[in-house]
Specification:
Layout lengths: L12 E7 L4 E9 L5 E7 L5 H17 L5 E7 L8 H11 L6 E4 L6 H11 L14 H4 L1 H16 L8 E5 L3 H12 L3 E7 L2 E4 L6 H9 L11 E3 L11 E4 L18 E3 L8 H9 L3 E3 L1 H4 L2 H10 L4 H26 L3 H17 L5
Parallel strand pairs: 3-4, 3-5, 6-7, 6-10, 10-11, 11-12
Antiparallel strand pairs: 1-2, 2-4, 7-8, 8-9
Helix pairs in contact: 1-12, 2-3, 5-6, 5-10, 5-11, 6-7, 10-11, 11-12
């Protein structure tokens, strides 16, 4: 699964789980706990790897730090199909194995949801992103991550030389994050012109009714079933003539093989690690502003942390708006002043808080 790389931040713990009898394989990475117990989602995918979970756990360390949360970064992955008929059994088995890993608080992620977190909570009384019936704030229903992306867009758009009102938007991965981003950006005057899922891309330069597209997805249909547009391939969404591109699905979708075709002026990283380091540098050279994942998509974890602290929905939305607005402006000002990538600016700020906290801990 690849050699483990350690650095000044971590990872602190890597737990690999396997049961031939139960038919489950999983991995948990606790990257850093200097700021508090690690908080991060449980990803469910047959393709998930230890290296991916390590990268995602580090992203959570940085995300939770710069968001000012009292949490370190962690992540887990269950190697299984997200719609597997034994999904509840897998989650309950997984939960029992991490019962005493108090440094890790599970949350929802790709392939898991509030129901899955209810199973986890039932087993170990420790989870974020719970159903409303258990005192949770419904992250996906409210569109926490998508809301945060729209806040980020409002600050970043002038830096990219675009006006958010009328800006054409393409969303790669029209799932819970992509749907919410389309909704909140449309409400701010942006125009959704393209969206993609595993079935392909739908494109209409005159605009797409995001409500109708959401209804299709909620009926278990592909975006390509939308009748008022042109169907294109999944990869075509990256090369469309738009102002804003939002990769909101899986890691590394913008890479050296397709970065030259990107025409957007602003890339908002809605997914975790959706742009490779090489591609991020190439975007900068092309004059395309790319906002790092742990800045742009922090709305979900901020709301999850607020829920864990028993805050209200109103307080959670206020925290998302304030922290993402301030952090986006902060990293872009630093990036412009020091002539560095926005990611480098963000990493330096986030690492500084973690390293200062580490001085007070016995390691």
């Amino acid at each position: 699964m690849g050699e483990i790389q350690y650095d000044e931040l971590g990872p602190e713990k890597i737990l690999e789980l396997h049961s031939a009898k139960a038919g489950i394989t999983a991995v948990v990475v606790v990257d850093n706990t200097a700021l508090g117990p690690s908080l991060g989602g449980v990803r469910v995918s047959p393709l998930v790897t230890r290296q991916e979970i390590m990268r995602l756990a580090r992203a959570m360390t940085l995300k939770n730090s710069i968001a000012g949360l009292p949490h370190g970064g962690g992540k887990a992955g269950i190697i299984a199909e997200p719609n597997h008929p034994r999904k509840e059994f897998y989650f309950r088995f997984f939960s029992k194995q991490i019962k005493h890993l108090y440094e890790y608080i599970p949350g929802p992620d790709m392939g898991s949801n509030e129901e899955a977190m209810a199973w986890v909570y039932d087993e170990i009384q420790r989870a974020a992103g719970l159903p409303e019936e258990l005192g949770g704030i419904p992250l996906d229903k409210l569109g926490a991550t998508g809301f945060g992306l729209s806040v980020c867009a409002g600050i970043a758009a002038p830096y990219a030389g675009i006006n958010l009102k009328g800006a054409r938007v393409a969303v790669q991965g029209f799932g819970s994050v992509g749907k919410a981003a389309a909704r909140f950006l449309s409400e701010k005057g942006a125009v959704l012109v393209a969206a993609s899922d595993t079935g392909g891309t739908i494109y209409n330069p005159d605009g797409i009714d995001y409500r109708e597209l959401i209804n299709l997805k909620e009926s278990s249909m592909s975006v390509t079933e939308y009748k008022k547009g042109v169907i294109k391939g999944r990869e075509d969404i990256f090369s469309l003539d738009v102002e804003i591109l939002i990769p909101a699905a899986i890691p590394d979708v913008i890479h050296k093989g397709n970065v030259d075709s990107v025409k957007a002026r602003l890339v908002l990283q809605g997914a975790n690690i959706p742009v490779t380091q090489e591609a991020e540098e190439a975007l900068q050279k092309k004059g395309i502003l790319s906002i790092p994942d742990f800045i742009a998509n922090a709305g979900g974890v901020i709301m999850a942390a607020m829920e864990y602290e028993k805050k209200t929905e109103k307080e959670a939305f206020e925290a998302i708006a304030t922290r993402i607005r301030d952090n986006t402006r902060r990293i872009l000002e630093k990036s412009e002043k020091e002539k560095i990538l926005p990611r480098q600016a963000a990493v330096e700020i986030a690492k500084d808080r973690v390293l200062k906290a580490m001085r007070y801990r016995e390691y």
